[in-house]
From TrEMBL:
SUPFAM superfamilies, per the entry: cAMP-binding domain-like
Species this protein is from: Pontibacter locisalis
Gene3D superfamilies according to UniProt: Jelly Rolls (2.60.120.10)
CDD domains the UniProt entry points to: CAP_ED (cd00038)
Organism lineage string: Bacteria, Pseudomonadati, Bacteroidota, Cytophagia, Cytophagales
InterPro entries: cNMP-bd_dom, cNMP-bd_dom_sf, RmlC-like_jellyroll
Xref: SMART domains: cNMP
Protein name, as recorded: Crp/Fnr family transcriptional regulator
UniProt domain Cyclic nucleotide-binding: residue ranges: 14-136
Tree of life domain: Bacteria
């Protein structure tokens, strides 16, 4: 788990470096968690209990309504944080599902531990707040793309942001994420030079 914690430290440091004593305390609370392919991690209606750090694998957060419509909202893969963050931070029932698309390995920390660290160590609270702010900024950018860009523009933007995603995520989920019919997604794959 030493190597996995080192990857976590690299991500944390890229957001906001922590004093070494804060890092030592923070890193001691994380445990390893392994999940099989296509397994739910968080269900709608459950309160998210953990902040996840993705060590390996690909996951998605999605919404499913009472009319059988599904919307893929976010993909997570190494090295990133994962989980249903609004449910975690607000400690309210999730409106979303978090599932693995591939076998996945995580480090995870319980919310109560995370909250204790944020209350006791201002550097950790600042790092978490800054990380959430980056996530919010990315979601706002994605909303603009969904509302203002054509299918091809959304596809190109995704490839600019994450060129490797075509190899990581099944295309039916990418099409859903982009709000594109799967047939049109296939046409874009053939049309757009990657």
């Amino acid at each position: 788990m030493v190597e996995e914690l080192q990857k976590l430290k690299q991500l944390v440091t890229s957001i906001r470096p922590l004093p070494e004593e804060d890092w030592e305390a923070f890193s001691s609370a994380w445990t390893r968690h392994v999940v099989k392919r296509k397994e739910p991690i968080t269900l709608a209606g459950d309160v998210e209990d953990y902040l996840y750090f993705v060590v390996d694998g690909v996951q998605r957060v999605y919404y499913f309504d009472d009319q059988d419509r599904e919307a893929t909202l976010v993909f997570t893969y190494q090295p990133s944080f994962g989980g249903v963050l609004d449910s975690l931070m607000l400690q309210q029932p999730s409106r979303y599902y978090y599932e693995t698309l591939t076998p996945s390995v995580f480090l995870r920390v319980p919310f109560l531990e995370l909250q204790r660290f944020m209350q006791a160590m201002p550097a950790i609270e600042s790092m978490i707040r800054e990380g959430l702010s980056y996530n919010l900024s990315g979601l706002l950018e994605r909303l603009v793309e969904l509302q203002c860009y054509s299918s091809e523009e959304r596809f190109r933007k995704l490839l600019q942001r994450s060129p490797h995603i075509l190899q990581l995520v099944p295309h039916k989920y990418l099409a859903n994420y982009l709000g594109i019919d799967p047939t049109n997604f296939s046409k874009l794959l053939n049309k757009v030079r990657i």
